[in-house]
Design goal:
This protein is α/β, with parallel strands linked by helices and 345 residues long. It is built from 12 helices and 11 strands. The protein is globular, with a radius of gyration of 22 Å. Bound molecules: pyridoxal-5'-phosphate (PLP).
Length: 345
């Protein structure tokens, strides 16, 4: 597969904006910067941030064992996903493939870009991709296939062999959204990047890393793909405060790793408790920090929980999710309150 043939012609032709910080790169010591029309009085954020986020990317590169030139950072994964659609999909011509029930942003971002979304539901009852249907429904204009694994809202990972088959046979880019991978026993697809030129993996600091508020999404792909994304991203898309906070937090992952262990233990405890709740009819297996369950009447139970001060996600209107509710795993204290309330309903 030739990746160049998949890129929008107008994007291939773009000459990127060259910012002041791009044009002069040098050691920051002892220089007087009069090139970017910044306010010179130091307050910690008066200078533009590093447009290439070199220090932060070097840290992520070390942690994940992926070269820096294979990493692009975004203002949340949502920016990364938007950039991918804009790089590969010609508005009103190309399309993306998604596998409902799944993360809602893929379709929203496609709509914003006037790109059609082709939907191929996951299988029942295991919520796995149906590879033959996917390849049958793909057209010559299908540029991106979004695989969310572990999948939101169902919680399960997709079979490794199914993903490998799709990587081998889909004639476009396969984006694996690994927002919840740190909660899963399944291996990340990151170490397969060099094997599959059409593989893009996205991750985020919003879930396991506990930094939803700083908005940092990560895209991993071949240097060929990343270099084009770099060309079209806004020059200063990762702000200074985000870069500082991410570098600080990623410097010591002990706390995050402990929190992940606690959340996984809490998930087991919550699933045990769900077993005893008479109106919970089915608990779906979860590789993430949330659990989807099927109840007798999702709308009623959702409202009852709100009346008791607990907000969960009602997924009943999603395909294959009739009467399904999604519970995020909270702290032990929060989960204990949840369990107590569930038993009174
Ligand atoms: C939460 C979530 C994200 C994270 O998006 P950010 O913009 O990085 O916060 C991405 N994908 C899925 C499937 C999610 O559930």
């Amino acid at each position: 597969m030739n990746i160049q043939d998949l890129i929008r012609p107008s994007i291939k032709a773009i000459k990127p904006y060259s910012s002041a910080r791009d044009e002069f790169k040098g050691s920051k010591d002892n220089l007087i910067f009069l090139d970017a029309n910044e306010n010179p009085y130091d307050n910690g954020v008066n200078r533009y941030p590093d447009p290439q986020q070199s220090e932060l990317k070097a840290l992520i590169s070390k942690i994940k064992d992926v070269p820096s030139e294979c990493i692009l950072l975004g203002n949340g994964s949502d920016e990364v996903l938007d950039l991918l659609i804009r790089m590969f999909c010609e508005p009103t011509k190309d399309n993306i493939l998604i596998l409902p029930p799944t993360y809602g942003m893929y379709e929203v971002l496609a709509n914003v870009n006037a790109v059609e979304t082709i939907k191929i539901n996951l299988s029942e009852p295991m919520f796995q991709p149906k590879p033959t249907s996917i390849l049958d429904d793909a057209t010559i204009n299908s540029k991106l296939l979004f695989l969310c694994s572990p999948n939101n809202p169902t919680g399960n990972c997709f079979e490794t062999s199914t993903i490998a088959f799709l990587l081998d046979n889909f004639k476009g880019i396969v984006v694996i959204d690994e927002a919840y991978i740190d909660f899963s026993k399944q291996e990340s697809w990151l170490n397969q990047l060099s094997k599959y030129p059409n593989l893009v993996v996205t991750q985020t600091l919003s879930k396991a890393y506990g930094m939803a508020g700083i908005r940092l999404g990560i895209c991993y792909a071949s240097a060929e793909i990343i270099s084009v994304l770099n060309k079209i991203k806004p020059p200063y898309n990762i702000n200074e405060l985000t870069q500082i906070k991410a570098i600080e937090s990623l410097g010591d992952l002990t706390l995050v790793n402990n929190q992940i262990s606690c959340l996984l233990e809490e998930k087991d405890a919550l699933i045990k408790a769900f077993d005893e709740v008479y109106f919970i009819e089915k608990i779906f297996p979860s590789d993430a920090n949330f659990v989807m369950v099927k109840v007798d009447d999702a709308n009623t139970r959702y409202q009852q929980l709100i009346d008791n001060g607990i907000v969960i996600r009602n997924r009943t209107s999603q395909p294959l999710c009739d009467n399904c509710l999604r519970f995020t795993i909270g702290t032990k204290q929060e989960n204990d309150i949840l369990i107590k309330i569930l038993k009174t309903l």
